[in-house]
Design goal:
The protein is an alpha+beta fold and 184 residues long. The protein contains five helices and ten strands. Strand 4, helix 2 and strand 5 form a beta-alpha-beta unit. The two termini are 17 Å apart.
Length: 184
Amino acid sequence: MALTESNEFKLGTKAPSFSLTNTIDGKEYSLMDLKGQKGTVILFICNHCPFVIHVNEELVKMANKYQLKGIKFIAISSNDIENYPQDAPHLMKKLAEEVGCPFPYLYDETQQVAKAYDAACTPDFYIFDAELHSVYHGQLDDSRPGNGKPVTGKDMRGALDNLLQNNSVLPNQKPSMGCGIKWK
């Protein structure tokens, strides 16, 4: 498990469009189908990464809270399932059901969506405003597996609250860290 930091994603950048299959219901959705009225969170995650497993419960809590306020969450897995079969779509669906995932969990088979977002790690978090312009790209919080810090979602919650209150973008955005995306 090599620790990888997220790449820079310039604030104000328009979210690249996509159309992917939701492993939970088997239907295809575009970004426009799923975007939130007030904002959209895109999460690059996967099933097996210990950094994602560490934050899954908090992601579900955050989504349950903020989706009621008009911010939609969209999870995407772009990992190579040939070499990492634990990230296969049928297992994505199973995990989503186990953790009570209140958002779609999309499979990026070609990895083109991850490349369009310049995603580097799992988890990799992006927040966009109502017009799909980037307002945050950074960590959930300071917690990592084994560092003893509680998972609070502090950094992302701050960015989401700022978005909802029409406040300026958080100036200090720390990169997310986790396992590198498993490229083909």
